[in-house]
Structure formats: C-alpha cells, structure tokens
Input
Amino acid sequence: MIGRSTLAGSVEIATSPTCEVITSLGEAIGRCCQFQGGGNPTVVLPEGLHVVDEAPLELCSDLTIIIDGYLKFTNDESLFPILPPLPSYGIGRDVPSNFTFHPLIRGEGVKNVVLKGMGTVDGSGLPWWVKHFAGNMSVSRPPLMEFLYSDGVSIEDLVIKDSPFWTIHPYASSNIRINNITVQNPPVAPNTDGVDVDSCTNVTITNSQFYVGDDGISIKSGLNGAGRDFDMPSSNVHIENITVHPLIDNLSTNGISIGSEMSGGVRNVTVRNL
Output
C-alpha cells in the first residue's frame, strides 16, 4: 500500500500490504524494518519540507529511502542518544571524551541499504558549529550519516548539507557506493568532511561535488594504538570525476586526504579526474 502520514507531512510507504499508515519518518522506517515478508520496503519522501523533530534515524537491512523533498533534522541535543567512541579510535574525535552523539542517520550491521532521490538532507549544523567554536562541547558532534559493520550501502543523487561534523562516514564496512551527490557545508564549518572512508573495503565514489569546511574525501583507518589494535585498513577505494571547491580558501580543505587517522593502514586507492 501507499500510506500518507498526517503529522510528518506526506511520508509515503511503498512496500508490502503489512506496512501501515504512520505518523513520522522514524515510525515509517521502524514499521518497514519490521516487515518480514520478503522484498525491499521503500520509504518515499515526496516534494516539500519534512522536519525530523524526533530521535535520530536508525536504519535496517534491505531498505530503500527515496528523498525527493527537503529533509531537515533537529539540532536538539536532548534527542540524541550518547554512544561510546568507535573501537579504532578509543576516544571522541571532536573532543577528548569517551562519548559521542548518535549520528543523524545510522545503520549498524545492515545490508543492501539505498538512500537516493532528487531532494536535500539538511543536518542543521549551525548550532553544533557555534558550540564547537565556543568550546562548549563535552560530547563529540555526530556525523550526518554513519554506517558501521555494513555491506552494500548506496547513496546517490542527493544534496547533503550542513552536517554537524563529518558528513558521510562509512566505518568498517564493505561495498559502499556513492554517486552523483553534492555536499554543501560552509567553509567555516569545522571538520565537515564530505566523505570519510574509515576501515572500509570496496568503496566507489564517483561523479560528485564537495563544497565543504574540511576535506572533500578523507581515507582513514583508526587512531594510534586503538587503530593498530583494530587492524582494519581501508582498501580498494576508487574515486573518479570528483570536484572539491570550497567557497573560500579556509586553509583546511584538501581534495583527497589520506589520514590523518590511518593507523590501520590504507591500500589500493585509485583517484581519477579530480
């Protein structure tokens, strides 16, 4: 069936008849993730503004989200669960604490996930950046999208903007495909890399543009002893037809950066037409 919510603003569910009409994007994803009837349930956000003023989104396997509207996330810290640092770092990357905020969109141990569409994903990063510059962060800022221990993730055709921290962060995952996206973060937005490939294998990033406050694409594999103990290099990374163009020279942006966190190693990286 195709369902339209009355509260979230015309969220559509294109999936099996067992998926009911829902009232928010998070609930839509939750209902689709409970579907056990086979096939690939799809959540569709049509044109228009969709505000996520609830907890961050947790994805599941075999899920497609088509974003054709404007998806804007809350910046209310009280709605973000606090997580331990990643094992290959052992510490938060934004502040030296043992805690980090839950990413805005997260998938752990998922397979065959697709995020695509002609719309925009807005991370509402400004209040996070202001707190960072003021030195008022005690918990590390969240990435906009993070996939951990996952296989077969595709992100394509979207505009992704104003991330609180790193924008797209695949971690300890394989078979990642990113194509034809545009990432827009102001040049003054701290640490807002476009894509951070982190201890991943078989990654393809193509036909994309990055206007960001730090590196366009960074290839990582953990920090110091924690990275060496985790011992998972980034390998088989193919990057082609990429534009990295900050609006001003902020003395920080690199087109492609290997590191600085790369204690687990980096192997077999190909870059063409940068």
